[in-house]
Amino acid sequence: MHDRLKIVYEDQWLIVADKPAGLLSMSTGKREGETTAYSILTGHYGKIFIVHRLDRDTSGLIVFAKDQDTKLSLQENWNEAVLERGYTAVLEGKIEDEEGWIETWLYEHPKSLKVNCYPIEERDLEAAREGKCRYADRNGWKYASSHCRRTGYAESGENAYTFVEFELETGRKNQIRVQSQWIGHPIAGDRKYGAETNPIGRLALHAGKLSFIHPWTGKIMKFSSPLPNSFKKFDKHRQ
Q1: Which residue has the higher pLDDT, 110 or 62?
Q2: What is the mean pLDDT of residues 84-109?
Q3: Are the beta carbons of 188 and 161 closer than 8 angstroms?
Q4: Is the pLDDT of residue 239 over 60?
C-alpha cells in the first residue's frame, strides 16, 4: 500500500483507511492524474466506492466500500449507522467553557463553494433538529450540531490555543471548520475560515475516532487513529 495511506481495517465489504493531511479523498476533476486516497486504493484493489469524504487538509479515518450495495447501504443509513465521529482540533485563542453544543444553520454558496454559518433562533431550534426550516427562501440551509469538549491549552510564541475534542451529531461539509470560526476561534492553519496563525504547518484537524454498525454483519466497528506527529510536536506545549 502507498506510504501516504494506511489501511486500518479490511474485510470482504469494507476498507477503513487513515488518510494523511494534504491528500484528497477523491479527485475534484481540476487536476488530471492527481493522486488521491481513491486513486491509491483503486490502483491496489480495482473498483471501489467512497462512502464519505474528509477535506484535503484534514487527516484521519475514512471509509470505502468494495461494492455498490455496501456503499449505498452505508450512505443511505449513515446517520443511523454511525455511532461516533470524533475529531481533535487546535483552535486559536483561549476558550473558557469546558464543554457545550454548537447548533447552527450551514449554507454552501453555490459559486464560491464556501460554507457560511448562521444562528438558529430559539423558537426554530426544535424544528431545526428535525431538519425543518420555516423560511421558504432558505433552500439549501442545513442544520448542523457539534458537541465540543476542551481538553487543554497551549502557547506558541505570543499566541494561545485551545485543544478541543469534537463529536459530530451531524456530518456537514466543513462543519467543524466553519462552526469554529463562527464562535470566534478558527482552527489553527485554516486560512479559508479565518485563522491568522499556522503553528503546525497544516490545518490542525484530525478525524481520530469512528464507530459504526457494519451494514451486513450488524457488529459495532470501532476504530481510532493516533494524532499525527505534527500535533504531537505542538502537544508538548499543552498545559
Answers
A1: 62
A2: 93
A3: yes
A4: no
Task: Compute CA 186 distance to the chain's CA centroid, rounded to the nearest angstrom.
Answer: 14
Q: State the pLDDT confidence band at 235, using cuts at 50, 70 and 90.
A: low
* Amino acid at the residue 103: E
- Does the annotation mark 55 as catalytic? yes
* Domains of the chain with CATH codes: 6-76 (3.30.70.580), 89-193 (3.30.2350.10)
32-69: b (≥16 Cβ within 10 Å) or e? eeeebbbbbbeeeeeebbbbbbbbebbbbbbbbbbeee
Among the options 55, 69, 124, 190, which is catalytic?
A: 55
Q: State the Cα angle at 31 between 28 and 36, rounded to 5°.
A: 60
CB atoms within 10 A of CB 226: 11
The pLDDT, as a whole number, for residue 83 is: 94
